[in-house]
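User: Thanks for the earlier help. One more: GH21868. Can you show the sequence and predicted structure together?

Assistant: Of course, both are below.
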Amino acid sequence: MRFEPLDTVEKLYIDFRDIHVVGKERSLNGTAQILEDMDAKNFQMSVHFQHDSKRNNQWRNMLNSIPMMDVCTAMRMFVRTYGNPTLRNGENTNLPFTAQQCPLEQGTYYVKNMLMNTDNWPDIMPIGGLRGTMRFYRHHKLVGGFRLSINAERQPL
């Protein structure tokens, strides 16, 4: 697993620079800061997925990306589909987002020993390198985000 905060040209409104991959299990640990309430009127989000079947840095775009849309709708789509099994409030994060509330409130949020739970991912997800890039925008200008790369493997039955 590899976690990379994205650089911005504009003011940073969501900061992932203090999150790191640590330990033998390669879990995510650290804090993220939301520097202003992120509402649907002013903030947008997108998620872009790529696949590298041979793990040779030849990334190809995947069809299941989430185009730029208001942050509340995008978080509902993304968290409800992929994030709920991974983001366990009170256990490995204090992020109170349940995929229903908006705005995303200003504050400092931790992740602790967070591992990707892929139990609800569709069986058609490819194996090999998977990379997701989550970008946050304010009035369509990049204000924060991250790239997460993982190696997906099938577990023997």
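User: Great, one quick takeaway?

Assistant: The mean pLDDT is 87.
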